[in-house]
């Protein structure tokens, strides 16, 4: 059983690493094509590092959920070590995606504007991150709230920011990671409570 489990975990890791590399390449390739022969490699490397953040979050969350789901389905609960990971994973993942989203607000400093206009632009650009921060605060000790809140936010993000095929990268970088955060909160809510065992005294 342990050998089968190790083989499954290893195969899953390989598949997710391959998907991570393909996703990263797919996101960077249009930029390489658009640059023609004048490739700014320092900027490409910076973009690779930044884009790696949500992708690691995405595929790492998938790994945790699949492993935990198999264990919960087989045993009715998860091991203590995995339970600890599941408990902290959605909270850490939410912080990571909030920081990643807030990085896009730094573009306002490239504009020629007054300090007050910069502050207003910074606030507007950080509105999604601030909303997620409030949701995380509400969900910190209530994983059920985290599941519903982050799932709802992901749906709203799709409605407002994925309106055409050009918005598909937003699915990979924002929506899917946020959905996975919701999934991790669900696992924290449902899977960390062992299934009730039958009362042997009541069995005829």
Q: Give the overall shape, derived from the CA principal axes.
A: globular
SSE-based structural type: mainly alpha
List segments where confidence is low: pLDDT < 50 over at least 5 consecutive residues: 200-204
Main pleated-sheet profile: none
How big a fraction of the residues is strand? under 5%
Q: Mean pLDDT score, rounded?
A: 85
Counted by DSSP, the helix tally is 7
Number of domain units: 1
Instruction: Name the helix and strand elements from N-terminus to C-terminus, one letter apiece.
Output: HHHHHHH
Head-to-tail CA distance between termini:
32 Å
What Rg do the Cα atoms give?
A: 20 Å
Helix content: over 70%
Number of separate strands = 0
